[in-house]
Amino acid sequence: NQAVIGVVGLAVMGENLALNLANHNFRTAVYNRTVSKVDDFISGRGAGKPVTGCRTIEEFTAALETPRKILLMVKAGAPVDACIAELLPHLQPGDIIMDGGNSFYLDTVRRERELKKQGILYLGVGISGGEEGALNGPSLMPGGNRDGWPAVEPILKTIAAQVDGVPCCEWVGPEGAGHFVKMVHNGIEYADMQLIAEAYGYMRDALKFNNEKIHRIFSNWSRGELAGYLLDITSDIFTFKDPESGALLLDKILDAPGQKGTGRWTSVAALETNTPVPTLTQAVFQRNLDADKELRIRGAQLLPGAAPDENDPMTADEIAEEISALESALYCSKLCAYAQGFALLKAAEREYGWPLNYGELALLWRGGCIIRARFLNDIKAAYDREPGLENLMFDEFFRDAVKRRQDGWRYAVAASALFGAAMPATASALGYYDSIRRADSPSNLIQAQRDYFGAHTFERKDRLRGEFFHNNWTH
Ligand code: NBP
């Protein structure tokens, strides 16, 4: 009774994925460095399911049918290399190793190339959806050595989230493409979360709405065009009471955000490939800035802010307008964040030769993952209309969507600036939008400055591109 697949690493993700596989009747062998976790799993959540607990690597590799299909779910970085080194002496050519962790995509490129030389088929599989997704259906972004795909395709497609009968799992591309796509997903996730938090901050600090009102607004938005998992959970968060005080739990949570680094990788990859992703990067910077609570407390004491007029209370119409402007700002900024993320995906083709199917990627993210949202259907439709779309913002549907909303977006950014209630990611998105629609940028001045101090030369508007000139500015 050989196992169809094996999972190495029984922490949160590995354990839930092993259960997901077993629940779909794939006999699953499991192994974990700390062997007691195997025993706990077999006698606990895995009891009565088609799982084979293995206490050594030898037992584990012997328990698997060939070619072996092994899913690594260990901490990203050195642990992945350690697991591969431990497995290798017990594998044979044609065996498949999948890394389902949040590995850095260039590590995946290196591992795939090294293992190919030994006949081992290596796949970097981006997995999103956290604990719940892992158990009930994650979004899966497999890439790497395509020769390994046919054997694992039916398994991965079965355990993935399904939306309208379509599994959120499709081959992404060669080498590190799967992990690259997962990384960009996480970068978009950072921006998405930050934009929602900024709308909350504006409602709380500038509009002085109470939590009940903010809850109603998020809950309304979550049923409209912004519908998606992150707004659902945001709305839900406003219903949780702190068991100790009875107050809203959110009000008790320290405003010092954590991060595990995948958002930062997205920004680094963007810088390395000269791809502007200001909203995604602003979201990472904002986590850094907000994490320094002490600095902000000192800043609050030392730095003067705006002095907004203490006007009469707003009328119901004015309040409705403010809310509608904020919703427009969130929609348009979110769209810019996706446009930046997809531009970075495009850079993977340029930089690494990984042609990606952008519409297909939007479908992968419709279920299972954190950024799942109704909106992704519109992105898929945009790439169906024009697979080579230069920038997501150029699509006719989105151009029209922004046309209808841009007044509200501009108002929200301006009002937050006047009030001094920072909405840096929202503002950066508007800056991105206004920059990509400006045929004449002020960078002629930058070129003049560079030529002035460093003789870096410039091209001229009245000459062909590629002809460079230098002016003697100091004669
Ligand atoms: P962790 O990232 O916390 O990793 C813990 C696992 O790694 C344990 O099984 C541990 O074994 C094993 N491990 C370590 Br640490 N060093 C090892 C080594 N040198 N050799 C062998 N095994 C080693 O687990 P997780 O939160 O389940 O996440 C797994 C992967 O999935 C990560 O890459 C994570 O970034 C990614 N991911 C997580 C989520 C999420 O929501 N948590 C979502 C999507 C992707 P031990 O028990 O012996 O210490």
Automatic annotation (TrEMBL):
MF GO annotations: NADP binding; phosphogluconate dehydrogenase (decarboxylating) activity
Family: Belongs to the 6-phosphogluconate dehydrogenase family.
PROSITE patterns per UniProt: 6PGD
Assembly mode: Homodimer.
Role of this protein: Catalyzes the oxidative decarboxylation of 6-phosphogluconate to ribulose 5-phosphate and CO(2), with concomitant reduction of NADP to NADPH.
GO biological process: D-gluconate metabolic process; pentose-phosphate shunt
Membrane-spanning intervals of the chain: none
The EC number(s) this enzyme carries: 1.1.1.44
Protein name as it appears in the record: 6-phosphogluconate dehydrogenase, decarboxylating
Active site: K182, E189
Domain 6-phosphogluconate dehydrogenase C-terminal positions: 178-474
Keyword NADP assigned: yes
InterPro entries named in the record: 6-PGluconate_DH-like_C_sf, 6PGD_dom2, 6PGDH_C, 6PGDH_Gnd/GntZ, 6PGDH_NADP-bd, 6PGdom_BS, NAD(P)-bd_dom_sf, Pgluconate_DH
Binding site for NADP(+): G9, L10, A11, V12, M13, G14, N32, R33, T34, V74, K75, A76, N102
Catalytic activity: 6-phospho-D-gluconate + NADP(+) = D-ribulose 5-phosphate + CO2 + NADPH
Binding site for substrate: N102, S128, G129, G130, H185, N186, Y190, K260, R287, R450, H456
Keyword terms of this UniProt record: Gluconate utilization, NADP, Oxidoreductase, Pentose shunt
Pathway noted in the entry: Carbohydrate degradation; pentose phosphate pathway; D-ribulose 5-phosphate from D-glucose 6-phosphate (oxidative stage): step 3/3
Top-level taxon of origin: Bacteria
